[in-house]
Amino acid sequence: MAGGKCLALIAHDQKKDDMADFARANRDLLSRWKIVATGTTGGRVLDAAPDLDVTRLKSGPLGGDQQIGALISTGEVGALIFFVDPLTPMPHDVDVKALMRLAIVYDIPMALNHATAIKLLPTLEA
After folding, report:
1. CB atoms within 10 A of CB 7
2. Distance between CA 9 and CA 82 in Å, rounded?
3. Which Gene3D superfamilies does the protein's record reference (predicted)?
4. Is 114 annotated in some ligand binding site?
5. Whole-prediction pTM
6. Is 20 left (phi over 0), alpha (psi -120 to 50) or beta?
7. Are the C-beta atoms of 85 and 13 separated by less than 8 Å?
8. pLDDT at 5
9. 39 is an annotated ligand-binding site residue
10. Does 4 belong to an annotated binding site?
């Protein structure tokens, strides 16, 4: 991920359509960033906006959340947009909490829903 900070995109299963819509509608702002995303989310973002620079990591439950957490801790991820589904139980909830904890500890901007992401994205510097 050398050469500037990345924006991390993650979406729980029930929020992947919302993330794809978000990427499509905000492709101009997102195109300023190198994007890292968990596997399936990254695939959906690329389907919606194929011109974006997206690096797909592992799926969240298979370690993708932890990969993004590591990139936060090394300073390579400068912001996180994570569309969380609070109504669906997540077997990897511990990983999700650890990722959010790292975003807080390293004081990076974090949006957890569409409304906040729309307000946050234009204020971020790539």
Report:
1. 25
2. 6
3. Methylglyoxal synthase-like domain
4. no
5. 0.93
6. alpha
7. yes
8. 85
9. yes
10. no
- Pairwise CA distance, residues 56 & 1, whole Å: 12
The set of catalytic residues is 65
User: Is the predicted pLDDT of residue 4 greater than 70, yes or no?
Assistant: no
Cα separation, 71 vs 44, whole angstroms: 21
Distance CA 99, CA 82 (A): 10
Query: How is domain 6-123 classified at the architecture level of CATH?
Result: 3-Layer(aba) Sandwich (3.40)
List helix spans (H) across 35-110.
39-48, 64-73, 93-105
Polymer length of the chain: 126
**Binding residue per annotation — 38?**
yes
Closest CA relative to residue 57, chosen from 112, 90, 99: 99
Tokens of 3: 């050469």
- The reply to whether 74 sits in an annotated binding site is no
pLDDT at res. 88:
82
Three-class DSSP category at 72: helix
Of the listed ranges 50-54, 55-59, 83-87, the one predicted with least confidence: 83-87
Structure tokens at 96: 């999700």
